[in-house]
């Protein structure tokens, strides 16, 4: 039939065009560059998990034609680009790394200018493939760097195995209030909490299909409940209760510093809806913060410093004298009581300050942030991650650090991967980086979370805060939290009505300032 003949004719033309049009310019004659190529992100010689999303990158060398030759064993893949962007097809990428577990990908870059017949061949680099998987999802707070205005804040989840992402909470739906302090129980996507400040204020607990809004504030707390840590059993959550302030200074090296006026530790019992003070009543002006449970639930680790001077008008020199140590207390879940403080790591002896202790799932190591002073390392360029061996007491500065801020770190559920926020890309915004922890003495070179567009991080300002691994996708969405925010909160009560306030002083003259300050951003 005429229609069928026309169809076959156009099909043949299309096939001829496809075959001839697919002929790529050849690499041709090459000249050794005798150097590694400049690529972004810097994925040169990184260690990656076998289930990671395609590691797309951009070649930052001058040229008009670019090639990336990827080889491993008997497999070889050649990708050509006119703009230097190297993208892997997802199916081909997954097959490539699956076939090379515990092996490596060898990547060789070629760059050619149109007016030059010679193609530059750069030194090859590798991506080493670990057999241990990384948890498939990452949850983080996406926020603009800033000091006061809450602007747009989201809690998002991103598949680490692909480029799919979705919002869990958006503050646009809850009157633009601050959203922070998300925390998961044992990387469980169904059991977590999120804190919201302002007109929709409260701590929101999820349990399978339910979101419960609670008010955790009781009289004996100096501030709201923050920096949560779930007890492994799931019944208890430890918080610190802080009065946080930020001061601005006319110093070139330091224009802002965030610090605690007072801070103490509390325990929330999810079964009884009760709050108990953890901070010892006979402590002398302690600053205690950043609670973190051991994997067996027998110890609560935290950071503690002596408060030498009260008030918000602290000079920068005053704050530089505040140093936090790593401390722990034993815990009895039956009586809900704690033992005495035990010093774990004396950072003050080094004129340093420790924060964010995170214990490995096997209980052998603690990773913590150490800065020169204070309690808010995200604003400290010198802040680095340290690894402490709990069995030997030995510690070291981790190889994964850069000359910019490292902080906000979390272990994967199998203890083989660490995610942390780093400002190494531009010195301004924090991005999630992953590092392979083979052992305390063997750590792979870290890499930033892959993006479909490898130039993505050069186009956004937002910081990725508090990255947390989860073992599967979170089912809740922004409208679920919008509905929960409109409900009345469940009011908590003191776990021991006779429990007196710890020996810290409520700074009454700070109330007015607290009303006008909208809180600390990062």
Compact description:
β22 (286-293) and β23 form a beta hairpin.
Could you characterize what this model shows?
The chain is mostly beta strands and 522 residues long. The protein folds into 2 domains: 23-130, Immunoglobulin-like (Sandwich), CATH 2.60.40; 137-516, 6 Propeller (Neuraminidase), CATH 2.120.10. Helices cover 9% and strands 42% of the residues. It contains 5 helices and 38 strands. The strands form 8 sheets. Strands 1, 3, 5, 6, 8, 9 and 10 form a 7-stranded mixed β-sheet that branches. It has a 5-stranded mixed β-sheet with strand order 14-15-16-17-37, with helices on one face. A 5-stranded mixed β-sheet has the order 18-19-20-21-38, with no helix packed on it. A hairpin with a 2-residue loop joins strand 16 and strand 17. The longest helix has 20 residues, at 2-21. It is elongated and about 85 Å long. The chain starts with a helix and ends in a 6-residue tail after the last helix. The relative contact order is 0.14. Mean pLDDT is 88; it is low at 5-23 and 506-522.
How many structural domains does the protein architecture include? 2
Structural class: mainly beta
Query: Main β-sheet, in a few words?
Result: 7 strands, mixed
Low-pLDDT segments, ≥5 res: 5-23, 506-522
Q: What percent strand? A: 35-45%
Separation, N- and C-terminal Cα atoms: 70 Å
Q: pLDDT average, as an integer?
A: 88
Region (Disordered): 485-522
Pfam families: PD40 (PF07676)
InterPro entries: 6-blade_b-propeller_TolB-like, WD40
Biased composition (Basic and acidic residues): 505-522
